[in-house]
Amino acid sequence: MSRICPDPVLSIRNLRIGVGKHNAILHNVSFDILPGETYGLVGESGSGKSITGLSVMGLLKRPLQVTSGEVMFQGQDVLKLGNRARRRLRGDRMSMIFQEPMTALNPLVTVGRQIAEMLVVHRGMSWPQARRKAVEGLENVRVPSPEERARSYPHQLSGGMRQRVMIAIALACRPDLLIADEPTTALDVTVQAGVLELIAELCKAEGTAVLLVSHDLGVIANMCRRVGVMDRGRLVEEQDAKALFENPLHPYTRGLLAARPRLGSRTLAGRGRLTELDQVVASEDRGRDAPTLTTPREACPEVTA
Ligand SMILES: Nc1ncnc2c1ncn2[C@@H]1O[C@H](COP(=O)(O)OP(=O)(O)OP(=O)(O)O)[C@@H](O)[C@H]1O
């Protein structure tokens, strides 16, 4: 029996990004994301994860620019679209959650209005209708007292609540692709797991594909079906998450895995994020040494400098 493989929602082909036209910092990156799939991009700081996500959204800022390649979104090369067409896609069929919601939220506008605005702009709803939907959106992301919170300004909410608002904005128009760039890195460990679970649950319910950018292998292991590993602007390995953690092929990936925090002799990757966080919190409670961290290159000398 033959299986029908759906067309990818996102297909990046030989993407190169440079500082200006010549100084390449992303080199021929290619990967696909299938509808409803959560794909993880992992790698050290500066490896090129964020600029990959930003280029899909059309949010790269000068001096960075795409110098060659294709970013096919639902069969259309978004790099060939004009600014207006890209703005129409953003927030509607593709959206993004950033690490620090305060930089993405408008501090002068209530959160309810910021959610409603997406529905007015992209769905043509009236303001009263969009406002009702915004309250529903806040309820969906489990913001308590959503009616009241809709009238709050971002600074009146906690970091975790602000990130939930960002998720409500990003998912308001039921996008086909969500790019989540380190969505929980800025949050307390106690709220990180809840926010990740929320993203996973809502995207699963809507069939939204997710590009999850993270340096945290525990997060990637818990959330993603497939994983791409980035090292200095190159995608050096791509595997199913389970296979990657059990049998990493590239020396850099082996280094990355060896460099992850360890508690005692047990490794953390491949186990639930909640379990990992529980262990970290428990070890801190007991006043043990914090997990030791090394860089992948220190941990795995095979990796070339
Ligand atoms: N505005 C910019 N001008 C010049 N170089 C930049 C700019 N923004 C990013 N870069 C460079 O692009 C490379 C990739 O950066 P990117 O932010 O994508 O890394 P990352 O893997 O997401 O790391 P992090 O998790 O720290 O953000 C880095 O070498 C960085 O110095």
Automatic annotation (TrEMBL):
- Keyword field contains NAD: no
Q: Which residues cross the membrane?
A: none
Keyword ATP-binding in the entry? The reply is yes
- Superkingdom field: Bacteria
- Disordered, as annotated region: 283-305
Please list the GO biological process terms of this entry.
peptide transport; transmembrane transport
Q: Which residues form the ABC transporter domain?
A: 10-257
Q: Which GO terms describe its molecular function?
A: ATP binding; ATP hydrolysis activity
Cell location? Cell inner membrane
Q: Which InterPro entries match?
A: AAA+_ATPase, ABC_Ni/Peptide_Import, ABC_transporter-like_ATP-bd, ABC_transporter-like_CS, Oligopep_ABC_C, P-loop_NTPase
A single Gene Ontology CC term: plasma membrane
Q: How does it sit in the membrane?
A: Peripheral membrane protein
Keyword list, A-Z: ATP-binding, Cell membrane, Membrane, Nucleotide-binding, Transport
PANTHER family, per the entry = DIPEPTIDE TRANSPORT ATP-BINDING PROTEIN DPPD (PTHR43297:SF2), OLIGOPEPTIDE TRANSPORT ATP-BINDING PROTEIN APPD (PTHR43297)
Name the family the entry cites. Answer: Belongs to the ABC transporter superfamily.
* Name recorded for this polypeptide: Peptide ABC transporter ATP-binding protein
What is the source species? Manganibacter manganicus
